[in-house]
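dumping this here before i forget
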Amino acid sequence: MRIEIEVNGNVRDVSVEPDAARPGRVHVSWDGTTREVDARLVERDRHGMLLSLVRVGAGAASRQVRCVATGRNGLTRVHLGDVIVDAVINGRRAAGDAPGGAAGGASRLVAPMPGKVVRVLAAPGDQVEARQPLVVVEAMKMENELGAPRAGTVTEVPVTEGMSVEAGRLLAAIE
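structure:
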C-alpha cells in the first residue's frame, strides 16, 4: 500500500507492505530506504491508537506511538514520548489534488489502499463541503477517514459498510 505523509511541509511517498510469512511484520520504504518493522496494536480507545513498533535487524529499536485523529481530514497527531508531531496522511488526495479531484465535472473519491469499509457517512443526493468525511476505510488496523475531493452533490456511493475494497476502488462520486 502507498501512503503520502506530510510532516513540517515535507511530503514523502511511503510504501508499507505486509510480510506474508510473518503476521504483524511490515516492510516500510521511503526515499530508497527500507525498514522491517514489527507493528502491533496495543490498544484503541477514545484517545486514539497506541502502537508498538519494533525495527528489526541492524539498528534495532522500539517505540510506543500514540496516533490521534484531530477531526481535520487526514491530520493525525503522533505522540512519540514527549515529542508530538502533526502528520497529514494522504492530504493531497483528500484535498482533491490527486487524479480524479479536478474542480470541473464529476470528482471521484477512490480508496488509496486496500481495506474494509467501516463507515459510510454520505448518501447520493447529499450536499457536501470539500474535505467533508464521506467514507471510513480500515487498513492495517488503522481507520482512514476519506473526505470529499471538493464541494458538491454526492451522485454515487457504490460501497457499503463491511465491504472489502481494493486500492483505486470508487468509494463516492461528487458533481
